[in-house]
Amino acid sequence: MYSEPTIDLTVHHKPVNLSDRFALGFTKLLRFCADTFFAKRYGHRAIVLETVAAVPGMVGATLNHLKCLRRMQDDRGWIRTLMEEAENERMHLMTFIEVAKPTLFERLVIVGVQWVFYIAFFLLYVVTPRTAHRIVGYFEEEAVISYSHYLAEIDEGRSPNVPAPEIAKRYWKLPDTATLRDVVLVVRADEAHHRDVNHAFSNELNGVAIDHQAIAPCPVHDESVCIQKLAA
Ligand SMILES: [Fe+2]
Ligand SMILES: [Fe+2]
Questions:
Q1: Which of 51, 77, 159, 224 qualifies as a cystine partner to 153, CB 3.0-4.6 A?
Q2: Nearest ligand, CA 49
Q3: Does residue 173 sit in helix, strand or coil?
Q4: What confidence tens digit (pLDDT) does each residue in 140-184 have?
Q5: Given this structure, which CATH class describes domain 18-214?
Q6: Residue 71 C-alpha to ligand 1 middle, in angstroms?
């Protein structure tokens, strides 16, 4: 039985060191750029930013995988969690591409930004993974805020509450009657989960004990939807 996800919308990690302050400052700068570029075009904003959001999980998974191979040690569940995050962000993208269509200029921005962001994030993760995870934690705090704004646009009638795309209904196990509003709610819950996971990973790298149960991969997704093309 489907029930609306309950999440804490107010979580904010207060910066405690230079690494955190850098991560927060960098995030606020990118937020300003995104607000300037997209204004209230939330569908387009979601598409472009989800192409970026799907990068850190795969970078983190790759580098942790290689580290565990080199050191012949257990990953404490990090790799699977980070891979699920990358896959989940890609499913956000596959969902919103059914709702809005990016312009040619946005497609060019996506290609350029992917080169720069992948290389920059990879190098940052090699040098300081705790800062890399903190940045993602702050990105996800902003994503929760952005999807709350998108929700308000729908609720106040400025964005049409169209039927949910088929792929979203299957991936999130939504009812047949689900709408875009339901999709934005579950996507926002995913972003809140990524927020908590990445802040927790950064905390653990800072030597703080964390609850591994709370940061396990999100159980509500139907992951078979992610490999449907392979299975078809
Ligand atoms: Fe996302
Ligand atoms: Fe996210």
A1: 159
A2: 1
A3: coil
A4: 999 999 999 999 999 999 999 999 999 999 999 999 999 999 999
A5: mainly alpha
A6: 32
